[in-house]
Amino acid sequence: MCGSGPANAQVTVVPGALARLQVAPEVVSLRADETATFSVTGFDRAGNEVLLASVAWAVTNGTIAGGIFEPWRVGVHVVRATVGAMEGVAMATVRPGAVAFVVLSPVAATVREGDSVLFSARAYDAKGNAVDDALIAWSVDGRIGTVDPGGRFTATSGGAGRIVVVATGGGGAATALASVQVSSSPLYLWLVLAVVLLLIPLLVLWRRRRTRGPEP
Length: 216
What we know:
Layout: E1 20-24, E2 27-31, E3 36-37, E4 39-43, E5 49-50, E6 56-59, E7 63-65, E8 68-70, E9 75-83, E10 86-95, E11 101-105, E12 108-112, E13 116-118, E14 120-124, E15 135-141, E16 145-147, E17 152-155, E18 159-169, E19 172-183, H1 186-212
Parallel strand pairs: 2-10, 12-19
Antiparallel strand pairs: 1-4, 3-8, 4-5, 6-9, 7-8, 9-10, 11-14, 13-17, 15-18, 16-17, 18-19
């Protein structure tokens, strides 16, 4: 009689049916001029990784292809990865990008000497998102007046000039210009007229004396 020992059997365990999807990273923060790369992993009920077929990506704002997300608008957006009826999600917080342009208002103004006008400026990134923490610097091109840090221009002398605003932020900068025409005030015109009227009689008297020559 032949004896028999214990028999060994090899068992191969394969993953079960897809039970959930996990998108990584689950939370990301980026600027509007940056991109983020997501990946997705499938698991069965026991936590074993399941090989995925084709994955469909979607996002509530911006574009995503192959897991590469390119944002557009600032805000909190949802990234979705779908395989069949199963879905995994992640959250993306988008901040403004670098300053690309600045909008100045009004773009032209006519002011009298001594009067003032308030200009406003707002910076935006390349995708049109407002960059509200951008630094705004004001200056006047031409000797027509002054402008304060809040954008209020005060006319001091007649003539033509420009308001210059420079916005910087996020590694970008932009400049905008507004034309300004300063007209002389009525008081100034009356002063000029008074001086002219005073000089005319003096000029006439001087010419008469010059014509007559020196008195004997």
